[in-house]
Amino acid sequence: MEQTAFDDPAYRAAAVDLLGVLAYGELTAFERMAEDAKLAPTLNDKAELAALATTEFGHFQQLRDRLVVLGVDPMDAMTPFVTPLDAFHDHTAPSDWLEGLVKAYVGDGLANDFYREIASFVDAETRALVLEVFVDSGQAEFIVDRVRAAIEEDPKLGGRLALWGRRLVGEALSQAQRIAADRDSLAALLAGSVDRPGLDLAAIGRMFTRLTEAHTARMTALGLQA
């Protein structure tokens, strides 16, 4: 029988952890966006955010189904990440509609970029699924339109939302570091092994440069100072 990467217990644990954290992240994103839709100032805004929430739930289902194919209970795979992800959302609960939009665009965007980076170290099938889940469908463009329009109407909003965006990136990076530190399998995935190259210090530096540049581009798109 042909061997696969999943025959290595260490690799299997890392891939399951990656799929587990992504699945719970998508499930909470769905839940949060559905809740934030209640704050929408218009019916159209409510419908737009509800559509984004539906997309997130579809991503959760894809990740859940992949775990089932691997013979893993999706609930068991997600459980280790409930506490850190819930803590992140508790620390970054938006106070209004606009903060919720910025969080969905900037905070989730940074987390997605980080996990896309990790996906370059997994098998082709898992990597394809992760990249498919995080592909930009263009739906979030309505967030850019709403935030820019709000700042144009009230320029003072720009400063408050920029500070909020900076806080989100700090919290998101701290959360990612905590998860990587707490889960040896994910740390090992990034570090590599004898037959599978990982990230050295220079590569880690380049990765964080890419993450920072993508964050700055998102903030700029919203009309905010990074």
TrEMBL record:
Taxonomic source organism: Kribbella kalugense
Gene3D superfamilies: 1.20.1260.10
Protein name: tRNA-(MS[2]IO[6]A)-hydroxylase MiaE-like protein
Domain Ferritin-like as annotated: residue spans: 10-192
Origin: domain of life: Bacteria
